[in-house]
Amino acid sequence: MKIEPAAVPAASRPVGPTTAPHPWLPFTRLGSRAGEVALGYLFLAPALILLLVFEFFPIFYGLYISSCDWRLRCVRFIGLENYTRALHDPDAWHALLVTATYSVISIPVQLSLGLVLAYLLFQPIRGRATFRVLYFLPYITSTVASSAVWSYLYSPDKGPINAVLSALGLPPQRWLAEPAGVFTLIGGHFGLQIPDWAGGPSLALISLIVFTTWVFTGYDVTIFLAGLGTIPRELYEAARVDGAGGWALFRHITLPLLSPTTYFLLIFTVIGTFKAFNHIYIMTQGGPGDATTTASILIFNQLYQFNRYGYSAALSFLLFFVILILTIVQSQLAGRRVVYG
Question: What CA–CA distance (Å, rounded) separates 61 from 336?
């Protein structure tokens, strides 16, 4: 007599294919929630290690240097002395003023010009793809190369800009070598005596701002074009049906819906102008005199010319706190005006 095996109840049968033990089974045995957390930190470990070694460690080590009389090592711990010295240093305040002037002038010019060009290039015009590439080229060009070329253009002796001015019957300028204010120069041309406090930013600083605008406007154009592409076309069509003209469309639809893009570019540009260094050092090295000595140039000079490691570190952290405060203020003021859809 053949005995059949007893039937296994369906509820007790294994569901799905049998597999080998999971390679991360030791973590899952810790408990569902704890195992997932441990596994997550395991995957994050490489990035966390890189962040700790190359970000947080240099920051805290820089804080340590800023609190020392540092000469290749901490000779003497002096606490906040470098910071108090910076707050009472006229050169530091002058560098901050130059940086703020550079930022206040260049940011509106860059954003306004970038918005206008982006709006024009967003229209169905012939060759707009070529124009977009041409406007973006200065941003991806090497800063050293472009700064050297513009230094030649600004040359007071054989520069092409002065050659054009001479051909037009206008007096040549010293450009990057001119510490006098632009209003002082204009007033002198018309025989007017301008007081020192109303002389305005130096011609050297204005020349740097022109170069900065040439470089970074293309980036602003690209970001504005991306923002314009997210605005629904139906809104424009509905507004035109109601009789809205070009200016009304731009003011009541384009500008409000571009506010997230404008807000991002504002934050990005403020941080960039306060950290500007490369082209300033290549074109003027902070001169003539201290006319273009921004905060970054001052920090560099204190470190490499005067070997004041602790003092330059303190200046770096003070600049960081200034940028942080400006970012928070912008978030509180401009962030409330952002329209998200």
Answer: 37
E-only strand ranges, the chain: 68-70, 74-77
CB 256 within 8 A of CB 236: no
CA distance 265 to 272: 10
- 273 touches 235 (CB < 8 A): no
Report the sign of the C-alpha dihedral through residues 230, 231, 232, 237, in that order: negative
Q: Are residues 45 and 138 in the same domain?
A: no
The residue segments making up the domain with residue 38 are 23-55
Each residue's pLDDT tens digit, 32-63 = 778 788 888 899 999 999 999 999 999 999 99
CB 290 within 8 Å of CB 238: no
Chain centre to alpha carbon of residue 52:
23
Q: How far apart are CA 126 and CA 123, in angstroms?
A: 9
pTM, entire model: 0.86
